[in-house]
Amino acid sequence: MDLLLHLLVVIAIYAVFALSLNVEVGYTGLFNFGHVAFFAVGAYTSALLTLAGTPFLWSLPAALAAAGLCGFLLGIPALKLQGDYFGIATLGFGEILRMIFINEVWLTKGPMGLPGIPRPELFGFVFDTLPRYLALSAAATLATFAILAFVVLSPFGRALRAVRDDETAAEILGKNAYAFKIKSFVLGSVFAGLAGVLWAHYVTFISPGDFTLTETILVLLIVVMGGKGTLWGPLVGAVTLIVFQESVRYLRLPPEWTRLLGPLQQMVFGLLLVALMVFRPGGIVREKGERRGD
Amino acid sequence: MDLTYYFQTLLNGILAGCVYALFAMGLTLIYGVLNFVNFAHGELIMWGAYFLLLLMGEPFGLSLPAAIPPALALTGGLGLAMDTVVFRPIRRANRLTLLIAAMGLSVLLRNAAQFFWGAEVRTYGLEIMPGTPFFGVYLTMPQFAIVIVTVLCVAGVYLLFFKSRLGKSMRALSDNLDLARISGIDTKRAILAAWVISAVLAAIGGILLALDTNLSPEMGIINLIKAFAATLIGGVGNLWGALLGGLLIGLAENIGVLFISPGYKDAIAFVIMVLILLARPYVIAGERSD
Q1: Which residue of chain B is at minimal alpha-carbon distance from A214?
Q2: Domain for residue A256, yes or no?
C-alpha cells in the first residue's frame, strides 16, 4: 500500500514537472534542455529557507519566485537565440547551476547535500504521512493542470502556438515573439520550481547529484512520449514512465546486476526518444491537426 | 610563480584549444551541411576514445599505433550509422524532432559506454613518460602529438574543402541544399562524407584528449558545450572560425583558473558564450537566410 502511495506521489510530482516543460517545448517550441535547473532552484530555495526556520507558507512562494527569476534572467539572453542554440544554452545553464550547488559549500553544503528538510506545514496542518503528502501533491498537480490548461486555451496560448508554428507570421500579426517566449519560459520555470519544492520536502534530502541531465531527459521523454502540445500528454507520459522507472527500482536482482541497471534504463530512455522521433513524433496523445512526420 | 608558470598556463591553453578546435570543426561542418546542431557529437568524441581502449584491450591487444586507424574507422562508421538509422529518415521533419532525436541518441550512446566500461575514469594504461623540456616548460609526448595532429588536421581539412571536388560540393550543400541538388551535385555522397569527416575529427580529438588526460563516459557531453561555444565565437558553419574559437576557449579556461576557483573551470566556456550572445545575438539568430 505504501508502495502504491509512494508511486502516486512521485507520479504527481513528475506530472507537475512535465506539465511545466510542456508549456515551453509543446506549446511554444522552446528546446529547453536544462529544465532540471529550475526544478533544482525551487528545491534548494525552499529547502534552505525551511531549514533556516522559515514557514513553508513563505518558502513556497519564495521558491517559485526564485525559479521564475532564474528563468527570466536566463531567458533575456538565451531566448534571442534560434532553437538549437537555445537548447545548448539551457543545457549549459543546467550544468553550471549544478557546479554552483557543488562549489558554494557555505550555502548548499556542496556534494554533502541538505539532509533533514522538514515536511511542509500549512496553517498548522503538517503533511507528514504518505496519504497527507499525496493529498498535497495531487492538489498541486490539479492546480498546475488547471492553471496551465487555462493559459494554453486562452488567447495567450494561441499566440504561443502561433509563435511556435511560424514566428515570422506571428510577428507580422503584431505579436512580439520574444516577449511571448520570455513569458512562456518564466511560466514553465515557476511550475518546474513547484515540482522541485514538492520533491525536496518529500525526499527530505537533496544533493547536487539529484539534478543532473538525466532528470531533464526523463521529463523531456515524459512530455514527448505522452504527447507534446497536448493537455493530457504529460499526465499520460508521467504515469507510464514513472511506473516503469519505479517498478524497475523494486525488482529483486542480484547486486552485480544493479550496477548495470542504471545505464541500461537510460539506454532504454534514449532509444525511446529516438524511436518516438522517427516513428511517432506526436507521442501517445497526438496534438489535433498535426500532420504525420511533422 | 614565475614567468615560466604563466608560459605553462598559456601552453596548456593552446593544447586544450587545439582539441576543442577539432571538436568544433566537426560540429560546425554538420551544422553547415545539414543545418542542425548534432547533440550527439559529444558521443562521437567519447566513443572515438573508447574504441581505441577496446582495440588496445583484450581480446584484440593491439599496440597504440596499430589501434588508432581502426578506431577512427569505427567512429566514422558510427557517424554514418547515426545518419543512416536516425537522421536520414527525419531529414525533412521539423527542427524539434531532429534535436530531440539527437538528444536521445546522445543518451543512448553515453549510457552504452557506461554499460560496457562503467562510469569510472580510465586510462589507456600506457607508461607515463617524463615531459621534455621546451623553452623552460615541459611538454609530454601526447601534448606534442596534440599540436602536430591538429596542424595536420587543419591542413587536411583545408585541402579537402578548398582544393577537392568533394569539398566544393560540401560547400555548395552548405550554401543551399536544393540548389546544390538541382545543379547535379551528388548530395547523398557529400552528406555521408561530411558525417565521416565530422566523426573522424571528433575521434581524433577524443583520442588525443584521452591520451593526455583520461577517459570517462561524461567526456563527450562536457566537451560538446565547449565545442559549441567555440563555434559561436567563430560564427556557426565557419571552419576557420571554429579553429580560432576553440583556441580562444582553451586559453580563456586555462588563464581563467588563475583568477577563479578551478571548480568553475567548465563554466568559463558557458559564460563566454552568454557574453557573445548578449553582445551580438541577432548575428547568430540571423545566420540562416531561409
Answers
A1: B107
A2: no
Long-range contacts of A171-176 (CB under 8 A, 24+ apart): none
Beta strands in chain A (DSSP E): 121-122, 125-126
Instruction: Indicate yes or no: CB of B103 within 8 angstroms of CB of A33.
Output: yes
Instruction: Look at residue A142 and tell me if it is in a domain.
Output: yes
Grid cell in block for residue A259: 550496477
ipTM given for this complex: 0.87
In this prediction, residue B280 carries a pLDDT of 63
Buried b (16+ CB within 10 A) or exposed e, B232-257: bbbbbbbbebbbbbbbbbbbbbbebb
Cα B216 from Cα A193, distance rounded (Å): 31
* Region label for B242, one of left (φ > 0), alpha (ψ between -120 and 50) or beta (otherwise): alpha
pTM attached to this predicted model = 0.89
Which residue range is the domain that position A58 belongs to?
2-210
* Ranges of chain A whose pLDDT falls below 50: 291-294
The CATH class, in words, for B13-123+135-285 is: mainly alpha
In chain A, residues with a C-beta closer than 8 Å to the C-beta of B277 are 77-78, 80-81, 85, 89
A188: in domain: yes
Q: What is the mean pLDDT of residues B13-27?
A: 93
